[in-house]
Amino acid sequence: MATVLIVAPVFALIAAGYASVLFRFVSEGAHKGISEFAFSIAIPALLFRTIVVSEFPDVSPYRMWGAYYGALAITWIAALLISALIRERREDREDGVVFAIGSVYGNIVMLGIPLVLSALGNEAAGPMSLILSVNTPLLWLCGILQMELVSRKRTGSVLSVIWPILADLAKNPLMLGIGFGVIWRFTGLGLNPVVDKTIELLAQAGSPAALIALGITLFRFEVKGEMGSVAAISALKLLAMPAVAFALAKLLNLPPIVTGVVVLFAAMPTGANAYIFAVQYQRMVNPVSGAVALCTLLAAVTLPVVVMVVAGVRLGG
């Protein structure tokens, strides 16, 4: 019952966003404004406040990164191998890179943040922020560099590839919320009660707005394209990656709360950024679109199981 109370409201809000477009209560373009509010204002406020006021588990970030990004690396390699087996034209190695991105790039912002905070509470803020702070730039960098390597189209230095990513990172509202939260925490000044309440009210809107925006966004994704690829991406993302993350977290002896964050983030369905990457290179656009839709649908079944596993780890710890 406790698991249902954690997961059901999350997917109910996603369904509400989808239904609002389906029944034309809002336009399909409404996701732009809602997303901008959620990811430029409300969720940065949420991250800032939780980092400032929360208690952090005493754990090495390198062990946590080792578990999460170790699982990501293993899944990425497996995705490249599977893609090579199912592609019709073996020379299309660029497809393999997009296939791998779709298999590891989870929706850890729109869906991950609300679900992790709901399941684990504010104690999860620290580990969650450490993963969020490097996830997008690392995945985009690895994807772009590998794409240029396999296509042999590199026209500039590695720095020319890295610099735009770093520049975007420096302006990213989520990263700014995390960064300012860490800085303010180290000052030891805390938050004035009026300021704290104001930020808290703003932060409370972040998760619902993000989930509604996700539901609206899903309206344009369809389960179409190469169903073998769609199924393989979904299996890798929803089953293989969280299983490997759980094994590595236990191997590295991570505390229960950190294990929970690592495994839940690894279990998130394929996110829209994987679709954006596919569109950018015009490779596997339909299969990745299908994976975004199918993974999110199947996550309504897989995530309750993951939450129960995480709850068991916490009780056992």
From TrEMBL:
Keyword tRNA processing (UniProt): no
Domain of life from the UniProt record: Bacteria
Keywords: Cell membrane, Membrane, Transmembrane, Transmembrane helix, Transport
Protein name, entry field: AEC family transporter
GO biological-process terms attached to the record: transmembrane transport
Membrane-topology descriptor: Multi-pass membrane protein
Primary localization: membrane
Family per record: Belongs to the auxin efflux carrier (TC 2.A.69) family.
Annotated transmembrane regions: 6-25, 37-54, 66-86, 98-120, 126-145, 201-219, 231-251, 257-279, 291-313
Pfam families: Mem_trans
